[in-house]
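Input/output pair, single chain:
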Amino acid sequence: MTRVRVRQHVNPLSNKYQQSISIPHWSQIYSNLSQPFHLDLGCARGRFLLQMAQKNPHKNYLGIEIREALVTEANQIKDEYNLTNLYYLSGNINYFLRELLTSLPLNMIELVTIQFPDPWFKKKHQKRRVVQSEIVEILAQFLSKKGQIFLQSDIQEVAEEMCEKFLENSHFKPLTPEIWLTENPLEVMTEREIATLNKGEKVYRTILILNQS
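Output:
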């Protein structure tokens, strides 16, 4: 398959990305809806989830990506592998996340990953960053009681801001006393993480869980 060339960054606040989306009938996509779900927000080309789905057929994987061409390509590859525990959806999560999570089986979201999101360095652009207070509150409502949020970035400022957004919400707390993890606990690394580590640069990562107290 020819690799699709797509703009690296798009403005999520533009009118194009403020449209509602069509939520699929999940029973026509996943072979077993009783399996726990792993959501990857900002999945890009979806190679991370492609590997995860193959390694863990007892779990369902759903990737969300704003760039439609990448999603189309990722679903084509998923179909070539005949994977019935993986799907990719295109859209801006800031406008449809609640609707999406409401459509999924209740209390089955086990893991949410947000990895190397667009940094949007300029101050006036930071409202475009994916982790906003509204998103954090929605995830708090739909994450299973033992669910986890995994965040990582190669940009310290971005990683710290994502973590702060979650910890500002009383529903979340760090998994461990040491907020930042030295090792990736997942069995697959993203292409960006591999490239970053190969350059000898640091990755900032953390896991957050629901505060049960």
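The first strand starts at residue 37 and ends at 41. The radius of gyration is 16 Å.
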